[in-house]
Amino acid sequence: MRGFIEIFKMDFKNLIRNPVLVGYNTVFSILLTLIMGFLTSGAYANPTDAYNYYAVSFLIYCMLSGAMTSTNCFMERDIKKPNLRIIHSPVGSFPIYFSKIVSSFLFDYICHLLVILILTLSLYLNFGGANIGYIILLMAPIEFAASALGVFFCCIFKTEEAASTLLSNAISILAFLGGTFFSFDGMGGVLAFASRLSPVKWMNDTFFSIIYDADISLVLPLFAGSVVVSAVLVFGCSKLFKTEDYLC
């Protein structure tokens, strides 16, 4: 346990010292919200609704994009070099990949909570009001699953570049279909059906139901599903991770 804590601390420090990752997980999300909210505010009776829609949808998009945080934490070249000594230590392989998942999850979670705080205080956006606790609760397993997904892809493809490229493309496609940039619900049955094939759509529906309808009926299914996906991905990492691949 002590070995895991020491590795976790090192990984977490590497993340918070990386200005690119800090900016991507905070400033990027805020800028996207401001730009898209401004461009589409004329389509809403209340311009604030445009900012609110994109604040929530881009929050979900950035949570899923947290998978790229863990790929960087796990196999970025400058990170791998100082971690070589861990490979030869008696801690075993589990702390090596699991610490990357946990540190990436905690880093992304804190960054995205900060985004919510900034947007709430500056633009007075609605993230659930009295039900904001459900939003914060749901974020945790989704962030963890995204981090585990990034490490899982690194275990498969052996390099950060391949894992990050594939994940970035896949997440962008799912986000587009799921209504991150605009909703497909009013564009005909075919497009609406295609949108529902994306898990991003399920997340958007759940978050917006909590925020606008005070409906928490979808919280448990999404929470449980995210936990199951996290467990499956961690198990997959345990089966696929090989220290000799990490050394290459």
Q: Structural class of the secondary elements?
A: mainly alpha
Helix content: over 70%
Please tell me what the overall shape is: globular
Rounded Rg: 19 Å
- Beta strand count: 0
| Quaternary structure type | single chain
For the biggest sheet, the summary is: none
Q: How do the helices and strands follow one another from N- to C-terminus?
A: HHHHHHHHHHHHH
User: What separation lies between the terminal Cα atoms?
Assistant: 27 Å
Strand percent estimate:
under 5%
Tally of DSSP helical segments: 13
Q: What is the average of the pLDDT values?
A: 88
Q: Which runs of at least 5 residues are low in confidence (pLDDT < 50)? A: none
Count of the separate structural domains: 1
Task: Write structural notes for this entry.
It is a single chain. With 248 residues, the protein is mostly helical. It has one domain. The protein is built from 13 helices and no strands. 38% of the residues are buried.
Topology (elements, then pairings):
Elements: H1 2-16, H2 19-25, H3 27-40, H4 47-64, H5 67-75, H6 77-87, H7 94-123, H8 132-157, H9 160-178, H10 189-196, H11 199-213, H12 219-240, H13 243-247
Helix pairs in contact: 1-7, 3-4, 4-7, 4-11, 5-6, 5-7, 5-8, 5-9, 7-8, 8-9, 8-12, 9-10, 9-11
Quick synopsis:
This protein has 248 residues and is mainly α. It is built from 13 helices and no strands.
Can you tag this structure with a few keywords?
single chain, 248 residues, mainly alpha
